[in-house]
Amino acid sequence: GAISKDSFFDQLIAYLEPVLPYSHKIGFCFSYATEMFPDRDGRVINFSKEVELPEVEGEVLGSNMKAALRRRGLDDQVEIVILNDTVAALLGGMRESQSQARQFETYLGFILGTGTNTAYIEDLSRIEKLGEARPSGHMIVNMESGSYPYVDRSPVDEIIDRGTNAPGSYLFEKVVSGRYQGLQMWHTLKIACEAALFSAAFISRFSRVESLESYQLDQFLFRPEGDNILASCCDNDQDRLNLYYLIDNLFERAARYATINLTAVLKHLNAGLNPLYPVAITVEGTTFYKAKMLRPKIVYLMENYTRRKHGIHYEFIQAENSNLIGAAIAILTNG
After folding, report:
1. What is the pLDDT of residues 229-253, one digit of tens each?
2. List of residues 6+ apart from 256 with CB closer than 8 A
3. What is the pTM for the complete model shown?
4. What is the band of 90 on the pLDDT scale with cuts at 50, 70, 90?
């Protein structure tokens, strides 16, 4: 449910308070769209993934954290650097590869969990908004790729979008990410039941299921005859097969979109053409790592579409605590 601005920032400081005696440098890995400032603070643009914090939208993160410190009678003389979680993942993956003396041409950060996003390293000469006299060097770009609007949506996607906190926004995220997969399957099964694609017993049992979460799809995939909500709806193997194929198609679509997302960025960079120096893609997100079907599908599609068809070489990296390490790098190099 929604909470107030002060409650949000007070809770953040409550988490930080035990470690504040050790350092006054704070790297804040923030997973939502933010307008960044030259001083590395940032103003919240909006929240996605159905997070309800209307009072926080439009607020500046660092200055509000300092105000919360003062409310709690704590020293507000701290340095705060805000960075997106996708940027943090990229930095964490870069640090991991360097610690292993690995050489990559460039680095991407990719989030596929509750939400989805992409970050990459851009040559400053290509960033037109910097004007005519662009400096030399590179910058990490947080794409907010979950907000990409040109998505071929199904009627189910449109139903879900209309019921969200921000209809018409983050359309790519609503099609791909884990936050919405349970909803997608619930609406799909509702339509399938109306079309009598399941047994009468399944239809009757499913009519009492008021919602689905993404993890419940995996519960069924791992144990189709087990003690879980979807397995309990099934009356026979045909029900189980029909349900399996519907879930399989849902994850197939998500995997194809994720592959297109990553391949588009790699083609923009014209990177990964030398197999000796591939592109490192640091992936964070429980949906990528824990969803039974999704990761194998992405790996297969990236191999056959990205590498074999387009000749782009890459490597997925799972860096332990990449967001935490990325946040530390951000404050130590910018604070």
Report:
1. 999 999 999 999 999 999 999 999 9
2. 301
3. 0.91
4. very high
Length, in residues, of the chain = 335
Residue 2: CB atoms within 10 A of its CB come to 12
Q: Tokens 């995939």 map to which residue?
A: 221
- Smallest CA-to-CA distance from 109 within 97, 126, 125 is with 97
DSSP for 97-152, written as a single string: HHHTT---S-EEEEEESSSEEEEEEEEGGG-GGG-SSPPSSEEEEE--GGG-----
**pLDDT of 260-285, one tens digit each?**
999 999 999 999 999 999 999 999 99
What are the helix and strand counts (H, E) for the chain? 13, 9
Q: What's 236's DSSP letter? A: S
Side-chain half-sphere of 118: how many Cα atoms within 13 Å?
A: 25
Going by pLDDT thresholds of 50, 70 and 90, the confidence category of residue 325 is very high
Q: How far is the C-alpha of 67 from the C-alpha of 50, rounded, in Å?
A: 26
